[in-house]
Amino acid sequence: MNKKLGKQSVTFENMLTIASAASVVGNKEGEGPLGARFDEVHEDAMLGKDSWEQAEAEFLKKALEKATEKARLTQSDIEYVVAGDLMNQSTSSSFVLRDMPLPFFGIFGACSAFGEGLGLGSMIVDGGFAKHVLIGAASHFCAAEKQFRFPLELGGQRPLTSTWTVTGAGAAVLSLGGGGPYVRGVTTGKIIDMGIKDMNNMGAAMAPAAADTLEAHFREFGRTPDYYDVIATGDLGYVGKELVVKLMAEHGYDMSKNYTDCGIEIYDRDSQDTHSGGSGCACSATTFAALYYPRLVSGEIKRMLIIPTGALANQMTSQQGETIPGIAHAVAIEGP
Amino acid sequence: MNKKLGKQSVTFENMLTIASAASVVGNKEGEGPLGARFDEVHEDAMLGKDSWEQAEAEFLKKALEKATEKARLTQSDIEYVVAGDLMNQSTSSSFVLRDMPLPFFGIFGACSAFGEGLGLGSMIVDGGFAKHVLIGAASHFCAAEKQFRFPLELGGQRPLTSTWTVTGAGAAVLSLGGGGPYVRGVTTGKIIDMGIKDMNNMGAAMAPAAADTLEAHFREFGRTPDYYDVIATGDLGYVGKELVVKLMAEHGYDMSKNYTDCGIEIYDRDSQDTHSGGSGCACSATTFAALYYPRLVSGEIKRMLIIPTGALANQMTSQQGETIPGIAHAVAIEGP
Description:
2 copies of one chain form a homodimer. Chain A is built from 10 helices and 16 strands. In chain A, the strands form 3 sheets. In chain A, strands 1, 2, 3, 4, 5, 6, 8, 9, 10, 11, 13 and 16 form a 12-stranded mixed beta sheet that branches. In chain A, strands 7-12 form a two-stranded parallel sheet. Chain A is of the alpha/beta class. Chains A and B meet through helix 3, strand 5, helix 4 and helix 10 of A and helix 3, strand 5, helix 4 and helix 10 of B.
C-alpha cells in the first residue's frame, strides 16, 4: 500500500465523499455576489450574542449543525470533529464543541484551517478510523480586527492591500464511500516565510506558501493546471493572487486560465469596499460550500483544486518585528 | 477492518513505535526531581533570544531536532510534523517550522497538544500516509503568565491552586514498525466544561475532562486501571489529580494505586514553590520523554496510559466571564 506521492502529497485507497458542505454568514457576505448561495445569511452579525467572539462561535455551531443536517446525519453519526478558527487559543472551536459531545481535534493553521481539516479528515476516514468526520472553520471580521489590528471604534483607515475577514463559518462532512464529490488527493503545505511584515498585506505573506504547495502538487501528481476546471486559493485576494500567477509562471505553470481566489469571489470589489478581497478561515470554507460544492455535485465542475491559505502571526509577534509565515494545503476534489 | 472501539477509541493495524522521545527544558525544571533525566537543561530560559515567545519557539526547535537525532533519523526522513503550543495563534510551532521545510499540521488543544499529536500521528502512520511523524509540544512559564494572567513584573501572588507552566518542549518520533514501545490505542477526548472560571485553577477545570476520557477509555477497551503499570494525566497538579481520583471512584474505578500526574512529577512541591504542580504543553511531553519513555524502553514499565490534558480559554474569554472548557486525550503505550 503506497498512498504517498512525493514528499507532500497523498492519495487515498477509499472513495472519500464530501457528503455535504454548509455556509452560514453575516450580512456583508449576504450582500456580496454569493449572497443567494449561502445556506444562511444573518442580518445581525452578532447573532444576538454579547460579543463578537461569542458570535464567531455561534456561526461555527450553526455551520456544523447545517452540514450534519445536509448530509442527512445526526450528531451521533459524527465520529470526529476537526475544526479551527482565528481566535486566540482557538476558543470559537473549543467553546462550540461544549455543546457537541464528540471526539474533537482542534487545529490551527490560521485561514488554512478548512484545508488542514479536509487533509486530516481524509486521512482519518481513509485510515479506517471513522466513517463520518465533520470539518469546520470560522472567522469574524470584528473579532479579527480587534485581535490582529485595531479596535473598530478607532476608525482606522484600511490600506488597499488589506483584506476583509469573512464573518461566518463553513463546514463539511467527509464520509467513507458515498456518491461523491470525492477528495482524491491532498498536498500538505510547509511553512514558507518570505519576510513580509505588514499585517495589512496578508495576501503577499501567503502567496509564496500557496505557490510552493501548488508547485509541489503539480509536480508530485504529474499534472499541470489545466487538469482542473477550477483552482481556487483560500484568501489571498487580488494582491496575493497576482503574486501566485507570477510565482507559478516562474515555475513554468500557466495559472492565467482557471485560477481564482475565494477572497475575490466572495465580495464585490467595486461596491463593497473590501479592497484586496476577503480573508479569514471562513473565506475558503464558505466560498467552497456556497459556490463550488453545488457545482461539483451537479457535474458543472468535474475537478477542482482548493488551496486554503493561512498567515501565521499574531499581534505580539508583529510588534516584536517578526515576519509573517504562511502555509497552504491543497485538496483535489473530483465530481461523481 | 474495524479499528474503532466504541465512540472515542481506536486501535491500530500496524505496530506503531515511539522511536524516540526528547525533552529540552529550562533551569527551574532542571532543578526539579527529573533534572538529570532531561536531554537538555538550559540555565538561560531565554536561550539567548530577545523575548520569551522567541525562547519558547527555540525550545521547541531543539526538542524536535533532538527527537529526530535520537531516532537516528535526519530531517528529510520526517514526513509530517504535528505540533502545538500555548501562544496566541500557535506562533511557537509555526515560527520554528520556518526552518524545517516539512509538511506541517498545526494543532491546538492547549496543554493536551502532545496527546492530540500522538493521536493524529498514530492515525497518519497507521493509515499508510507516513513512516515517520514528528510530534512536538512547547510552553514557557514567562510567556504563559504574560499571556494568560499577569505580567511577571507586576509581582502578583499566585494562589495555591495555581500551577507552574513548564518552560521547555518535548517531542517524539512515531514510526511504522520498529521495536517499540508501541502506541496500541488512543481515546480521543470531548470538550467537557463543568463551569470553572478561575484561570488560576486549571486543574479543577481540566479534571472532569480527564475523568471523562479515562472512563471512556476503560469502558471501550474493557479494562480497569490495574491493566496499566502507570497512568499519568498531563498537568492537573495536586488539585486536579485529587478530583480525578474522586470522579473516577464515582464511576467505580480505583485510581489510588498507579495513577499520578506529570505536573506532580516534574517539580518538587516543598522546595520549588510551584503550588499545585506543573502545567503547560511541555509538562506531559517532557515528563513522558524524561521519566516514562526510558522505562518503557527498558521494560521497567510494560503498559502505560498517558492522558495529556488541556484547558481551553484565553484572557479575553475569561474577562468576558466565560467558563474554561477542558479536553484530554488518552494514549495507551506498551513496551516491546
